[in-house]
């Protein structure tokens, strides 16, 4: 996409890149190119990275935050790649404050890339062509399209078919990662069965988070069994989460290793944090709200 006649804004801007959580993730088939067909209920948490962007003489990325040093800083970083594909003529300097553990099933890299797309479009001052942006996002990674407008969504295809879900209940969420990186391709390769049942065609409407959790408990993450084989620590985390007072359901997100538990609200989720730290003080654990409405890419 080329820049129009509008002059780019010069003040730095900030975008929140929230964690993506797959409340369920059904693998329903495999395409000829090897990618898997999915049917997933996705939500976002008020826990995430921050991306600051400004117009610069040359493209630049600096990294900060607890997981900043773990990331590649060069041209192949998803933030710079995302900015380049969307607006090749507009050099931007980014500062990524990385709070989410990388390669951990909560879409950190994808959410950062989506935040970079939003920031680039804001700075360029252009009105985006939504279909073109979605196509460019899908080219960056299967989870990037759903991260463009963080909010409850049903995600199908290999990730490119995104259906926003309105009227979603509010609630709290706890994310726990045991500190093991699980490579996504390895988890998909280890799947025993690739043509599993999808979610029902029409999803129920959930009056509250307890009803949603009760329904989601009857669904699956088909990547959980192979990921647990590769990283047995996932099973340990899930056993701890399932026993937490107030936990409505517990499951692994994406291809792991981050697991989540749902709670009535953020306060109930935060109250469980000391128990998680007691189980294993080395685990990464954060509590926050579910972002229950679309288009609010802001930290609460
Ligand atoms: O697109 P993304 O970079 O997130 O995917 C990482 C890897 O996960 C892919 O290279 C592919 O091996 C696997 N994958 C898949 N089917 C999907 C999404 C990802 O097989 N729908």
Domain module tally: 2
In CATH, the topology of the largest domain is named Ribosomal Protein S5, domain 2
Which structural class should the secondary elements be placed in?
alpha+beta
Bound molecules: cytidine-5'-monophosphate
How does CATH name the architecture of the largest domain?
2-Layer Sandwich
Strand % is 25-35%
User: What is the 3D shape?
Assistant: globular
Q: What's the total number of strands?
A: 10
Can you tell me the residue ranges where pLDDT is under 50 for at least 5 consecutive residues?
A: none
CATH class of the largest domain: Alpha Beta
Q: What is the C-alpha radius of gyration, as a whole number of Å? A: 19 Å
Summed over residues and divided by their number, the pLDDT gives a mean of: 93
**Biggest sheet statistics:** 6 strands, mixed
Question: What's this, in brief?
Answer:
The protein is an alpha+beta fold and 300 residues long.
What this model shows, in words?
The protein is an alpha+beta fold and 300 residues long. It has two domains: 151 residues, Ribosomal Protein S5, domain 2 (2-Layer Sandwich); 125 residues, Alpha-Beta Plaits (2-Layer Sandwich). It is built from ten helices and ten strands. The strands form two sheets. Strands 1, 2, 3, 4, 5 and 6 form a six-stranded mixed β-sheet that branches. Strand 5 and strand 6 form a beta hairpin. Helix 1 runs parallel beside helix 2 and helix 1 runs antiparallel to helix 3. It starts with 12 loop residues before the first strand and ends in an 11-residue tail after the last strand. 46% of the residues are buried. The model has no long low-confidence stretch (mean pLDDT 93). It binds cytidine-5'-monophosphate. The site of cytidine-5'-monophosphate (C5P) has 11 residues, from strand 2 and helix 5.
């Amino acid at each position: 996409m080329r820049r129009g006649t509008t002059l780019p804004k010069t003040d730095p801007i900030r975008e929140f890149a929230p964690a993506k959580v797959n409340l369920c993730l059904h693998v329903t088939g495999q395409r000829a190119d090897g990618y898997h067909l999915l049917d997933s209920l996705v939500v976002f948490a008020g826990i995430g990275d921050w991306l600051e962007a400004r117009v610069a003489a040359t493209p630049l990325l600096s990294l900060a935050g607890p997981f900043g040093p773990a990331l590649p800083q060069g041209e192949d970083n998803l933030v710079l790649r995302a900015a380049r594909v969307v607006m090749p003529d507009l050099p931007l300097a980014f500062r990524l404050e990385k709070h989410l553990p990388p390669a951990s099933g909560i879409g950190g890299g994808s959410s950062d890339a989506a935040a970079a797309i939003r920031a680039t479009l804001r700075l360029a001052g252009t009105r985006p062509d939504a279909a073109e942006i979605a196509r460019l996002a899908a080219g960056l990674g299967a989870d990037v399209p759903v991260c463009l407008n963080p909010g409850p969504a049903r995600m199908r295809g290999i990730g490119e078919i995104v259906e926003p879900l309105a009227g979603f209940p509010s609630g709290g969420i706890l994310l726990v990662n045991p500190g093991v990186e699980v490579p996504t391709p390895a988890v998909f390769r280890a799947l025993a069965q690739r043509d599993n049942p999808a979610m029902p065609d029409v999803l129920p409407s959930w009056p509250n988070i307890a009803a949603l959790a009760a329904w989601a408990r009857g669904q699956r993450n088909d990547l959980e069994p192979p990921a647990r084989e590769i990283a047995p620590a996932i099973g340990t985390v899930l056993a701890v989460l399932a026993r937490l007072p107030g936990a409505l359901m517990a499951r692994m997100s994406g291809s792991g290793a981050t697991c989540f538990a749902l709670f009535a609200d953020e306060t109930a989720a935060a109250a469980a944090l000391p128990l998680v730290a007691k189980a294993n003080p080395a685990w990464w654990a954060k509590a926050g709200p579910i972002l229950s409405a679309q288009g609010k890419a802001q930290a609460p």
